Input
Amino acid sequence: MPKVLIVDDEPHIRLLLEQTLEEFEEKGVEIITAGNGKQALELIKKETPDIVYLDVMMPEMNGYDVCNAVKNDPALKGVYIILLTAKGQEYDKKMGDDSGADIYMTKPFNPDVIIAKTASILNITL
Amino acid sequence: MSQINLEKLVSKKDLFSLLKGLINVLGSPIEIQGKEGKTITSFGDQPDANVQTHSNVISTNNTYPIKLNDIAIGWVKGDQPAHVFSELLSYLANKEFEKKSLASDMLDKYREINLLYDIADKIAACTEVKDVAQLIIDEARQLINATSASLMLLNNNNTLNTLEILSAYGEECIPKTILQLGEGIAGNVAVTGVAEIVNDVASDPRFVKGHNAVSSLLCAPLRLKDRILGVMNLSSRSPYPYSARDLKLLSIFASQAASSIENAILYENRMKTENIKAHLQRYVSPQIVSSILEDFGGNSLNPSKKKISILFSDIRNFSAVCEKLAPEKIVTYLNEYFSHMVEIIFEHQGTVNKFVGDMIVAFFGAPFHCDNNETQAIKSAIKMQQCIKKTGSSWIRDNFTTGIGITAGEVVVGNIGSPRHMDYTAIGDEVNIADRLQSLAKGGQILVEHNVYHATKNIFEFEKFGKITVKGKEKPIDIFNVIY
Output
């Protein structure tokens, strides 16, 4: 069963992303969530999700560090990481690239882009 | 609206553990069934070290509904305690439903924010009114259900105010529709400035029946402060229940459209003005261009009779002069000469009408009014002659000796020609006489006609030059030489 992990310390953003990805649940995709970086890394190791929507600014462990840790772990090679943050500056994009994130999206995110991207990575037609 | 997946709800880890714990306490097995009675999961009916029940057999056929908004979405089968589970699961299902509904609403809002964020970005790149209108229509259609959409602008003619379609989409829109202000629903909204939902168009007495089959529509004014620029319409061919949310969204689009269209109009006008300015600056000084643009109404370029002074200046023996140097060199000197001469004409509120070879034709008093245009023309001519004598280039000083002729009187002046090619020019005897005087003037000389002399004799010094006869004039004309 494909899995998507949503990581954000703001509950309403987690809820928004869950709602955005609701249709995928009907296609058998499991949506799991985490409220901070540390919890996210534990979940990624345990569940090996296909996609992680990862916020950058979070307590305990920020998104760049989580991304770094995942990308440096050969066992988590197939995990696709999408950094999702309110920042849109060139510097932040560079930090995202350096941390090994697969792509970088800025908030306010476009729900339709999220749906299209998820469908394409999981190879699911809605 | 989101529906609740009971199977997913009960499989949530936290809830699953809670249910197990409760079974322990109550000591009675239960089975949770879907809407159609199919088993989703069961508790306590199988040996489980963590679950202790009095019996592991469900001995009853009693089922208790799990209700979401009073409709059964599943069942709990078991003895009397199963009733508690059905109540608990009903409560949780309703809470989950509320959460999902809120999340769905929040996502809608988020899409709106995202859309506005996108529009603001895209609009910044639109400089043309039509492009702005098209963009707004395209974006509105993404969020509001409609089979056709249009954006109409208010045209303020002096006698009639009309609404005309600027951009449209969909079969029901007739691109050339023109409504009077107050006519139809759109015409009314343009008057009242209040956005409207009309879900039953046919029963609205204001609706103007045409070829367009519209059942429901939304209409919002393009309002800018206290002005209405036009309206934006979205409609549906088949009946559609437009909501307050749709109207709110359309109003947001309309307000974005109003300020962006106003900006685009201002930008287009500015570009037009810049274009006019660029053309005019070749003929008159920048200061005069500004004054013309500020009050263009009084300075029409249409042909009309005007009292002006006309100045012709020409280099003596220019053909012979040209033979002395290579053409490229001559052009360089000519450009320098013309630059000085034009500058001086501009300084004296003159307009350079044209260059004909080495000859300059200038007007004083057209297209804009110039007080004492005869005086300005002579002042300009004197300064032109002095400038040639003082110029840094000895070659220009020695070879570009210039004769000037000035006349004044009523001529027809304005844009004359065919629609494909027009020249701002003057027609009349005075024009021909000025040309004639220029040809009579020796290098350094300024010859003026008698009426220029009479207008300025107290300002400048003159000597009689002689008389000339002109075709069509009975009496010869007195000519004067300006002493400077």
Q: What stands out?
A: Chain B has a mean pLDDT of 85. The CA atoms of residues 75 and 404 of chain B lie 110 Å apart.
